[in-house]
Design a protein that fits this description.
This protein is mainly alpha-helical. Helix content is 83%, strand content 0%. It has eight helices and no strands. The protein is globular.
Length: 158
């Protein structure tokens, strides 16, 4: 199965798509992996952006309910508490700079930033989906372009 994923064109697209949905790795990791598997940088960029955006509406709609459920169990309570603390810390930028802060939080391709963190912060700060979703999308595209130019530059040097 792994051989098929890395040897067929559709498999490479699917692999890039699913990797971009994984928290922490997200688009920042999926795009170079896609290019490394042989996808064109543009194809890897588009697939990574789409894949990175798939979890966002679900996080915006459901994360508070999921955290409420998690707080009922000792083991999950600690995990939810850490995630909420991370969102609170990142949310300081959101309070100070509002939607531009959310955009920057998502757009900067560094660990601890990205669509997952931005969605978590937006949900915990009760931002409406119609306001948060376009800003998160713009941040994902900006992060994608930053990683694209870095990845494309490395590909040109190779």
């Amino acid at each position: 199965m792994i051989t098929w994923l890395t040897s067929s064109y559709i498999g490479k697209i699917l692999c890039t798509f699913f990797i971009s949905m994984v928290p922490v790795i997200e688009l920042r990791g999926a795009l170079p992996i896609g290019v490394g598997m042989g996808l064109s940088p543009v194809t890897a960029l588009i697939v990574s952006i789409i894949g990175n955006m798939v979890p966002v509406p679900f996080i915006l709609l459901l994360i508070r309910k999921i955290f409420a459920w998690m707080h009922r169990f000792a083991f999950f309570d600690k995990i939810a508490g850490r995630m909420e603390a991370k969102a609170e810390k990142a949310g300081d930028k959101l309070v100070k700079y509002e939607m531009f802060g959310l955009f920057i939080l998502v757009a900067i391709p560094l660990p601890g930033t990205g669509a997952w963190t931005g969605s978590l912060v937006a949900a915990l700060f009760n931002l409406r989906m119609r306001n948060a979703l376009p800003v998160i999308f713009a941040g994902v595209v900006a992060a994608g372009l930053i990683v694209f130019f870095i990845t494309y530059g490395v590909v040109l040097l190779a």
